[in-house]
Amino acid sequence: MTMHLKRVLPPDFPALQRFYKQAGYKGKASTRDENWVLVDDNEVICAAARIVLQANERILRGVWVTADVQHQGIGSALLRQLSDGGHLAQCYTFPYQHLVSFYQRAGFAEVAATPHLMPLLQRYNRDGQKVALMRYMGS
């Protein structure tokens, strides 16, 4: 199966929202964000990533993969294509602790929280989510 990266524009937000709901993600597609998907030859979404501007930084909010193709390298392929296109430059992410090695393989490294990102990190961890702070360093 061949997959390609596609930026999701407003006319395709309903399809992305359906994908998010299916993946259990409660976020919403917004024109303020960069919404990216990996689609197959039939333009079916297999994976999605959302990059938001928060605390004056670009933050990769997450990567979601369709349940029936998880653990097949689809999430890694999405991050690789985003990297190849320069879309992860200057990007942070707050992965759950069990996903740190996944993001490390994609070129992210754990970093100390900057003063403007510290409140976000503290909020996530205070809510019991146990996340790390990582920044894209290149693959």
Automatic annotation (TrEMBL):
<feature type="domain" description="N-acetyltransferase">
    <location>
        <begin position="3"/>
        <end position="126"/>
    </location>
</feature>
<dbReference type="InterPro" id="IPR000182">
    <property type="entry name" value="GNAT_dom"/>
</dbReference>
<dbReference type="GO" id="GO:0016747">
    <property type="term" value="F:acyltransferase activity, transferring groups other than amino-acyl groups"/>
</dbReference>
<protein>
    <submittedName>
        <fullName>N-acetyltransferase</fullName>
    </submittedName>
</protein>
<dbReference type="InterPro" id="IPR016181">
    <property type="entry name" value="Acyl_CoA_acyltransferase"/>
</dbReference>
<keyword id="KW-0808">Transferase</keyword>
<dbReference type="Pfam" id="PF13508">
    <property type="entry name" value="Acetyltransf_7"/>
</dbReference>
